[in-house]
Amino acid sequence: IAFQGEGCRTVPLSGHVGFDSLPDQLVNKSVNHGFCFNILCVGETGLGKSTLMDTLFNTKFEGDPASHSQPGVQLKSNTYDLQESNVNLKLTIVSTVGFGDQINKEDSYKPIVEFIDAQFEAYLQEELKIKRVLHNYHDTRIHACLYFIAPTGHSLKSLDLVTMKKLDSKVNIIPIIAKSDAISKSELTKFKIKITSELVSNGVQIYQFPTDDESVAEINGTMNAHLPFAVIGSTEELKIGNKMMKARQYPWGTVQVENEAHCDFVKLREMLIRVNMEDLREQTHTRHYELYRRCKLEEMGFKDTDPDSKPFSLQETYEAKRNEFLGELQKKEEAMRQMFVQRVKEKEAELKEAEKELHEKFDRLKKLHQDEKKKLEDKKKSLDDEVNAFKQRKTAAELLQSQAQQAGGSQTLKRDKERKK
Amino acid sequence: PHAGPLESKNEAAMSELVPEPRQKPVVPMKPMGINANLLGYIGIDTIIEQMRKKTMKTGFDFNIMVVGQSGLGKSTLVNTLFKSQVSRKSSGWNREEKIPKTVEIKAIGHVIEEGGVKMKLTVIDTPGFGDQINNENCWEPIEKYINEQYEKFLKEEVNIARKKRIPDTRVHCCLYFISPTGHSLRPLDLEFMKHLSKVVNIIPVIAKADTMTLEEKIEFKQRVRKELEVNGIEFYPQKEFDEDLEDKTENDKIRQESMPFAVVGSDKEYQVNGKRVLGRKTPWGIIEVENLTHCEFALLRDFVIRTHLQDLKEVTHNIHYETYRAKRLNDNGGLPPMTVETEENHESNL
Fold this sequence. Notes:
The complex is a heterodimer. Helix content of chain A is about 55%, strand content about 15%. Chain A has helices at about 20-35, 50-55, 110-130, 160-165, 185-200, 215-225, 265-275, 275-300, 315-420, and strands at about 10, 35-40, 75-85, 85-95, 145-150, 175, 230, 235-240, 245-250, 255. A 6-stranded mixed beta sheet of chain A has the order 3-4-2-5-6-7, with helices on both faces. A 3-stranded antiparallel beta sheet of chain A has the order 8-9-10, with no helix packed on it. In chain A, helix 7 (about 265-275) packs across helix 8. The relative contact order of chain A is 0.07. Chain B is built from 10 helices and 9 strands. Chain B has helices at about 5-15, 45-60, 75-80, 140-160, 185-195, 215-230, 245-260, 295-305, 310-330, 340-350, and strands spanning about 60-65, 105-115, 115-125, 175-180, 200-205, 260, 270, 275-280, 285-290. In chain B, strands 2-3-1-4-5-6 form a 6-stranded mixed beta sheet, with helices on both faces. Chain B has a 3-stranded antiparallel beta sheet with strand order 7-8-9, with no helix packed on it. In chain B, a hairpin with a 2-residue loop joins strand 8 (about 275-280) and strand 9 (about 285-290). Chain B starts with 5 loop residues before the first helix and ends with a helix. At the A-B interface, strand 1, helix 1, strand 3, strand 4 and helix 6 of A face helix 2, strand 1, strand 2, strand 3 and helix 4 of B. Strand 1 of chain A pairs parallel with strand 2 (about 105-115) of chain B.
């Protein structure tokens, strides 16, 4: 074992201590915590990705078949809680939608790579946080990528090669031949050989089932030779003999999914779930994630220096992050301040407008008032004039009258006398 | 065997499963999709076996520290716990050796194996603790050592190119030995535990418990528990880290009744009732270490080793280490100078 080299003696025990329960303690804790497993299915529309997942996990996951008219490649992700005896598994199945349907497929691999990277990035972000909760983190990193190869019987499509090459350093790829009941046995053997040689000659690294543990070395070794697995999926159960089995019925016979002579479904299930699930998770974490992390950190400009000068990329990372964060904070503050100033300006303008209107109104009213006043004064004046005129006439009339009375008094007397005469 | 039908393999896997599976009530997780109904055996429960195999292959580290005045039987107890000569006492220690003038930290590692499980056990002794006339701040070297281990781990974790398995030298468990005075805790005990319970898992034990009668033991334990509570000292298992109701019930019982464990240690065997047992021979009888009516050693052993070993490591990693890391990263400007060279380089990098 690794640590023996550090100069530790092995000492014998004189009795039963009890730390042999340690694996149980560890496993118990994991069981209580629950497990995560994330599968990515990459393949053209119509290759039976959803059906295969349903068959593998003995259930009907949701979803309707996708159409062929997607404008670009998308990824659809669903999470399910499965339970078997005391194991709780959070299973996430991610499927490509519209893969291989476009006329120009040059960028088809990009959304897939971006998705995988995004999961690594999320984990890395959590890991770099100051206050982090890694042991409760819901791991979304892809543990296994099932690559669905169309059962043409000839060779890999160039899209397949390009995509797998882009993915092989980021995820554990398990290539499978989909809908393999379309190929005859002899064609299948040739097909598998062709695929394997094409993968090798193009330098595509697919996932190898581990052979370092004696208990699984044999079976894993054998299975490695059967790759890519030729699978068939079916959730329909048909009565064969006196048992109900998952099968597909044709006029010429029935293909049994779980019959190893008919297809490699059982092998896939065995390898993916019953033997290597934990190894797939471990490889994702210790190999693919570490590679991503290393590249990302180096890209950000950090490196470990040699042990004697001993500084510490962490300090720089954190300084950088802090500065970045402060910078962003400042930017946001600035933006907010600008927005505030803008709003104040707008409000001021509004208020000024209102004020102006009020002034105008006031002026109008004032003018109105003045006009009215003037009118009134004019009227008053004319009234006064009339009154004066009337007074004058009255005075004149009175004067005349009094004169007339004096003169007329005698005249009146005369008149009266004449009348009397 | 794998060519055979799948059923027998599953049975084999099942029988190797956990002997006492903790049938926990399912902690409900919020499903984001449908809760799928399983119509047949898939085999996802085999992950338990897969995981167990992997951990057995990697092996385990465990680091235990013993703190207490000299003469309290620390080394003997650790040797008794692990049924082998793992403690400082046996690696060339001389009874006439002078008590050091300051607190020293001595770590010794051994590899022990049981039932296919390999464990690297490191026992960290602290000679000189509490032995001076003036014991002020004698916990500081210990706190410094513990933090240094966190620092070491942090440095490794933060490398760009990291090791697949970071060597773990962090102290998972600190046994604090209380003198069996029968009265109460000493100020030194309280000071130490107050400071250190925040950085490491402390398990207080009453040493040389064969000097107390049963009644004295019960009363002493009650007083000690009370004093610890009054002083706000949270010893392991800490209340705030109980994960669920089952843990809480189990741990409450331990916290409120059993702890602190009153123990006796011995590496000598005697014949009692036809059996060979570890014990201490006195004129008035043989004190059997593993006899629960004589002392609580077996309880301590089961607690530390058989049920809570993994938990001690997890609390250290998920809580104490994370606390250290968060504090460390929050400190402006980082690295405390640990050696002269580092300081110089540190300055030149600024």
